[in-house]
Amino acid sequence: MMQTTMNTIENASTLELSMRFPARPEYLCLSRIAVRQAFIQMGMDENRGEAIVLAVVEALTNVIRHSYGGPCDRPVDFMINRYRNPKDGREGLEVIIQDYGPKVDLSRICSRDLDDIRPGGLGVHIIQSTMDEIEYSHGETGGLKLRIVKYK
User: Fold this and answer.
1) Assign residue 142 a region: left if phi > 0, alpha if psi is -120 to 50, beta otherwise?
2) pLDDT digits (tens, 9 = 90+) for 102-137
């Protein structure tokens, strides 16, 4: 079952979207659509916005494959927020992805060596190379929480 909550105020600084959906590839299109609509609403450059889409799809694919061991009906929480950096005032888009899989050693989350040429396994590298801020943490109720930000 999918749950969605969206708060948007036209021409204001508020943009909030929260969804919960099953960890299945067929739901990835919802995240792509939501991120595209959010970066368009913010007036973000298309190339920067599409970088967020790519990072989000990679992160959600990692949740399905690694946190849950394949497609299943376990939940993924997905949130999008307009974000303003408190230090320098830059505006961007923040995406938070929370799964409820086994606890992960955060120090082991890394990209594989790019000289190791083989299919797959580049999700972490893609996220790191496309986003401005990346933060992994343990969720309050287990699993992994990923917070990523891309500035305008």
Assistant:
1) left
2) 988 888 877 766 566 555 667 788 999 999 999 999
